[in-house]
Amino acid sequence: MKQMVERTARYIASVQAEDGAIPWFHGGILDPWDHVEAAMGLSVGGHLREAEAAYVWLARHQLPDGSWMAAYKGDDVVDGTRAETNFVAYVATGVWHHYRISRNHAFAADMWPMVKRAIDFVLSLQAPTGEIYWALDTRTGINKDALVTGCSSICKSIDCAVALSRLVAPDDSSVRHWCKARVHIIHALRHNPERFDRTWESKERYSMDWFYPVMTGVINATHARTRLDVRWEEFVEPELGCRCVSNQPWVTVAETCELTLACIVSRREDDAHRLFDDIRRFQAEDGSWWTGYAFEDGILWPDERPTWTAGAVMLAADALFQLTPASDFFGPGI
Questions:
Q1: HSE of 326 in the Cβ direction (CA atoms, 13 Å)?
Q2: Which of 148, 194, 214, 267 would you call most buried, defined as having the most Cβ atoms within 10 angstroms of its Cβ?
Q3: Strand partners, 294
Q4: For the domain that residue 40 is a member of, what is the CATH number?
């Protein structure tokens, strides 16, 4: 396990640019959410300075309203069509995760203004009915629909932002508003499913919609096991991992790792270990991880080994084997 983890962390670090940016792979794009996921993998692997450089990159590129655009290549925006709320919020998750491992109070304090602006931006796009709108479109304005996965992730990010504020800005008046907003998001997720996927095809076929409310603590432990049980056979391919989409013969490493985290949260440790064991075959010689496996064709597909997939592997490994002080990071609270 130690060798696997070290190789994975070295791979992420090898792709990172000198200015801290972590693209999907050499020559690829960067998006804010996946950049943070990869940085979290660096933290787990003990590459603390490299992880901090990734957050400094975000601080340098944050827009005045607190957001980031959808995709970058180097310093250039390559998709400026929108700022996605889930992407923007995730920086809070990453910074708090890094603090849990590094205990670098000074760095956490330096990152606080960036995190505060990001969360304020995200909550400015909260609907009166509780859900967070998916994106601010630079051409047409607010896209007034919401994603189950995205809003679940945002709940976790708010948890982390609140924890960070208590550490470095205990008198900040924003926190009370953030906590109330989180309650409203959770209410919408638990009780008002009609508020999601109103203007596009339902995302229920995606496994993330199934397990993200469990992984992020939106669904409490009493109901988490039941939620996973209901669709387990639909999404989990025995001895291979978790499908990305229920009706496609394709398992993906990142979704399998995130389902592993959801299993740990819901106290299904045996399932978590089996899932993680199933994907170990998908690590390449250089420490990277293939995106997924199309099992009817028997091929690794696509021909990509993203840094964010490696980051997800690191988070799952930490949760399973208690590699860092942040091994209990996912689930209720922080």
A1: 26
A2: 214
A3: 250, 299
A4: 1.50.10.10
